Task: structure prediction
Amino acid sequence: GEDVEQSLFLSVREGDSSVINCTYTDSSSTYLYWYKQEPGAGLQLLTYIFSNMDMKQDQRLTVLLNKKDKHLSLRIADTQTGDSAIYFCAESNDYKLSFGAGTTVTVRA
Amino acid sequence: GAVVSQHPSWVICKSGTSVKIECRSLDFQATTMFWYRQFPKQSLMLMATSNEGSKATYEQGVEKDKFLINHASLTLSTLTVTSAHPEDSSFYICSTTGGVGYTFGSGTRLTVV
Result:
């Protein structure tokens, strides 16, 4: 969607950290989400962050939110081959989700 | 956690025919269902929002007579692509607000030949 932007591709070596960045425009968004989509499948919720939080960590995943700059990032520690997928950030407003175009993460050995 | 079962996973149909896609919420009531369309290597575009027992709300540019949505019960919503054409070939995904965040179906790959 035009209101959420993210880089399209990321290539990372197995074992390194991946960082996917996203910017959004709606300052009234209550929640911001990260979803993972594997080929031919639906979307799997990875994590989410409430808009009044700066950071959230969940095992290998760390979400950072800079509300002033409307910038959201997802860091995946110790990236594995199973992390290869498309990652979407999304903002919710009035119960509707607006998605970014998706970042294709490729993990190389 | 909340699960949305979407069927079929893929379907091939002839041009001019209609195809029905079903999404069922398991173990919870889905008052609202969102229907998305995704073209290859692109993001999800919201087509319509349906609420149980009322007419669906369509996004701008989506033909309501072509994409018929029925949400007759709290556990079932359907999307029917009527008089399908090759340009309707796409990946269709449903989603509901049950559970944490939004729960998505596994998607339906529609190919119109």
Observations:
- Chain A is about 0% helix and 60% strand.
- Chain A touches chain B at residues 1, 31, 33, 35, 40-45, 48, 88, 92, 95-97, 99-102, 104 (CB under 8 Å).
- Chain A has a mean pLDDT of 92.
- The first strand of chain A starts at residue 4 and ends at 6.
